[in-house]
Amino acid sequence: MKKLIVASLAAALAAGCCCPCKTSCGCAPKPFGTTKYGEKAHLWTLKGKGGLVMDVTDAGGKVVRLLVPDAAGELKDVTIGFDDVSGWERTDPYFGAIIGRFGNRIAQGVFALDGQTYTLAQSDATHHAALHGGTRGWDAYVWDAAPFAHGDDVGIVFTRTSPDGEEGFPGSVTARVTYTITPANVWRIEYEATTDKATPLNLTQHVYFNMNGEGTILDQELMIDADTYLAVDADLAPVPGAPQAVEGTPFDFRTFRKIGARIDDPDPVLQYGPGYDHNWCLNGTGFRKVAELRGAARAVEVWTDQIGLQFYAGNFIKDEWTMKGGEKMRYRGWLALETQHYPNTPNRPDFPSVTLRPGETYRTVTEYRFTTPTRGE
After folding, report:
1. Where are the domains of the chain?
2. Which CATH architecture has domain 2-371?
3. Which of 166, 221, 338, 367 is labelled catalytic?
4. 341 is catalytic
5. Which of 206, 221, 278, 292 is labelled catalytic?
6. pLDDT tens across 273-323, in order?
């Protein structure tokens, strides 16, 4: 792994990286505490030329602060974060993190691949599932990190190798996740991975948004370009059968709708959440716009090449939790829009495959494009 990082740094320097450090690149990390596993974490600040500012840690690639400008250039933090890594350990480990080896749920923590059965830890014991990679998913490791600047873009490359058998998954997987901030206030996330044995792989980023930076997300407007969604059972696993139509249901976000308009409808599939915590089956193929969240003065568009989007409305965020600066957290104060393949795919041969095999390279790209909202749609 050290050789890989040295090569990455050398390539970055050859391409014009800002090292030795300049403040816009964030090359000089700050201490960010020690994880419960004894790993020392660090914090970088990435400043985009368009005004977007991100604080990010090598502990799980977690986004700590996301300062987004409005039309006048005024910055407001729109995400969840903490003053050091202990904050995630006393609340929720997934806030703003890279999720792997398998984002979302694998029902009962069991799957079969090439005739062999694999048993995983049920990290979501309440719903009898392996959630977000297991008891210690990729969010809970300190990754190797290499900041860079290429022209007007700034960013950071995170790399780690997940060994064969980690959390019960087969194969040694080498992963590379690149965050880039562009002058157009775009946060691009590029995922790459290879393996030496066949393994399921479904990577995502669990960033949370409140585009007003205060209050709840219930009055903010959301659009998701999807005609169907995956209905779930009481364990939040997709039910057998084809995706279901959103038309006439609380899951219809094909045009902008306030999130709070139907979040408490007595729809049993909705209330398994309780509230929105479901996968939308995205329309179209290739890299395209799939969703947009609008606040009063800031908006974020979601662009991806993925087939699914998990919209989670912060139903389990607790009012008594505190975040950076001692700020109280809020139930349904933030939401996640996670680009992904479908939940429980390793047990669903009717879903598009997530199996990565030796000789193949896993690649996917998602962008969060920060804008000012337009109305009248």
Report:
1. 2-371
2. Distorted Sandwich (2.70)
3. 338
4. no
5. 206
6. 999 999 999 999 999 999 999 999 999 999 999 999 999 999 999 999 999
